[in-house]
């Protein structure tokens, strides 16, 4: 009994000691907070005042070099370092120009591919643009020599809204191309490198075109064209078709023959399996999202570079396979560039001067089949056609504009 009372008393004592301790801790804590608040506001005030003074000193002293006159000083200050009007100030200050950032005026630059692809892969997190963004179609010409259908293309672009398209030309460095200053192709040549057909350098050139075109934030659709390609509809039709499409037009199919699956290399395992392997025409048309994914890929590109060697052709397999594996939902899996394989053999038919008729164009436009477009069907399956022999230019230019629409 006695033992129990003592125990109870002890417990009571214990708990009251605990309470007092808790109170003291609380009081100390509150005092601590008060001291902290008071001192930090002092510190804030102290430090805040420093940068202000520093900044004021800097602004009044820094911009005007000692040799400028008083008049020049006020001029510089009133300008507010306007980089878009006066670039000479940018030598002293690291100015950022919005114009040049959202659309480089000069497509010439000294960036290596690695640097270009990194820049091209940047995506704004903010949904709204701080400028009025009219979506553009980027026409990307991959050419070996000069453009034989330059005059036909000039006619195609004549009178069209320059805010709706942009042009990029990748040509072999050995072939100097020069366009008159009145041409829409004037100064649209990107820094190019040698392309050897059937090698990965062809894919490099495609990615280089994409990378350069991505630097213009208004480019929304990207179409790859060769020197033997022509448009078979007018610009407004093509623009509406591409900008209105939910899907990209990148040819991608499974070819079970030795020209398809036969080119797969087991060394690409485990990253790429035979069931992932696809084939398709290199002449694609893709949307911005997909273009960014393509310039951002290194891993799968490298597998093709290392293991897709003759008689495997990277340009026929890399994009169809890569897009099938990761971005199939964005793709219509068909191409919008017509080509005629009906003659058989390893090369498609090449249209000569004597083949160019209204009927040919009509036939290319519509052979009686329909194609999927978003969730509908359309009779327009192709917007561009190849291959045309350079001797066809005259006949093409003589086609009535009522037929072509330009
Ligand atoms: C900079 O120049 C642009 C174009 O001339 C002009 O619209 C803008 O108001 C200028 N900005 C400043 C701060 O002077
Ligand atoms: C474009 O930039 C290149 C190199 O950066 C320069 O040599 C060339 O003169 C520039 N062209 C124009 C029209 O500004
Ligand atoms: C275009 O080139 C012609 C001759 O080559 C020249 O006379 C003219 O001044 C140039 N125009 C512009 C805007 O540079
Ligand atoms: C294209 O193929 C992908 C598979 O790579 C598929 O997911 C997609 O639905 C196909 N697109 C259309 C429009 O059928
Ligand atoms: C072009 O015309 C020639 C001569 O009429 C003909 O032999 C050839 O098959 C035609 N080519 C195509 C692709 O239609
Ligand atoms: C029409 O064109 C489509 C698409 O290229 C092709 O699949 C089809 O075989 C062609 N039909 C005829 C009758 O030529």
From TrEMBL:
<protein>
    <submittedName>
        <fullName>Uncharacterized protein</fullName>
    </submittedName>
</protein>
